[in-house]
Write a structure and sequence with these properties.
- The chain is 72% helix and 0% strand.
- It has helices at 9-27, 31-40, 46-53, 58-76, 81-104, 120-135, 140-156, 162-181, 183-196.
- Helix 7 runs antiparallel to helix 8 (162-181).
């Protein structure tokens, strides 16, 4: 994927929607919709929801990352570019999420502690889904269900507003597209670092 891919209509639409949600959030125009969605949603068994929402936590992301790294090394002796893009996108996106949480300082619904916007769990679920749909094309429908499912658990637990999860669902493919399109720019630096650390097994195909 080259930088030209950042000019296609899908990426441009993704960018426009991402910016729109961010602007609505910053101007307070999402508040009414957020409150209505939170009020309308039921409060199912929190035990089950906590189990399901864990698929958007580091408790799932880290083992998943280790598993796909293992698969790459077992199959070809090194990482695939797709897996490296996933790992970089996960890191970059979670940094963005962390910065926005602190900068915007949006309270969670119903007096839950911590910062609300955007949703880190939803981002993790979505970035896994984007990677899975790129690596295993036939898994795309399941990947979409997985990402949306994680987002829904955050809403049903009433720990996030609708705008939080919507932004993260849009952020994941946006970050992934940029990281993938610009890989020829940052890949040489990555390879030099890996070489100096003696971690040739983590080089890419």
């Amino acid at each position: 994927m080259s930088s030209e891919s950042l000019k296609n209509w899908k990426f441009l639409l993704n960018t426009a929607l991402l910016v729109l949600v961010l602007v609505l959030q910053l101007t307070g125009l999402m508040a009414g919709m957020n409150s209505r969605v939170d009020a309308l949603l039921p409060s199912p068994n929190p035990g089950l929801m906590n189990v399901l929402t864990a698929f958007g936590s580091d408790l799932f992301l880290v083992p998943f990352a280790i598993a796909v790294i293992y698969l790459d090394i077992r199959n070809s002796g090194r990482l695939s570019r797709e897996t490296l893009v996933f790992l970089v996108s996960a890191f970059v996106g979670l940094v963005i999420v962390g910065v926005l949480k602190v900068a915007i300082n949006e309270p969670r619904p119903r007096n839950h502690g911590g910062y609300s916007f955007p949703s880190g769990h939803t981002y993790r679920g979505a970035i896994i889904a984007v990677y899975a749909s790129n690596r295993w094309k036939r898994a795309t429908p399941l990947a979409v269900i997985f990402a949306v499912g994680v987002a829904i658990t955050r809403l049903l637990l009433h720990v996030h507003w609708f705008g939080d999860v919507l932004f993260s669902l849009l952020l994941a493919p946006w970050v992934y597209s940029i990281v993938k399109a610009t890989q020829d720019s940052w890949l040489p630096l990555y390879r030099r670092v890996i070489s100096r650390l003696g971690l040739g097994v983590l080089d890419v195909e």
